[in-house]
Amino acid sequence: MIAGYESQIWLLKFQARMRKLEMEDEVMQYQTIILMLMRIERVNVEMILEWLERYSNIFKSQITKCLNNYESGPWEALEELKQDISYMPLIRIVESLQAAVEKIPIKDAFDELDSEREYYRDKRKESNARLIDRKARIGKVIGFAPMVCLFVGYLNRWFIGLPIKT
Fold it and tell me: Which of 83, 85, 80, 87 is nearest to 23 (CA)?
């Protein structure tokens, strides 16, 4: 009974962790899109938001809402987007978009994006290496479990004094 109760909690924790990884992947995808678009001369913030909306999954509703409100005021729409999301790397992207709305060219607003993207890529690589190591250890335990159960069962019969059939 306790195992059933705990399984629901573990399932929720697993789903939250997977959601966080998906958010991280999506923000890395946004950074790649912005890095490609910022090299184009006539690109503007609205065009970047449209591209982000096309390839979004988790933050689609918030970006769509921002695009719908963009005509009434770009700064206010981006500020509302910033309030709607709670994921800090995406908030930094929105702040750079706000800077690009004001007076700075888009290239200058996203000048730190290359280094930030490299940091997240290295962080993700390290995280994946730890995950693979952990899965390997779990696999070894699962692989040796039948052999250990066999030895324990064999020794248990021996200690009890039952005859061992071969």
Answer: 87
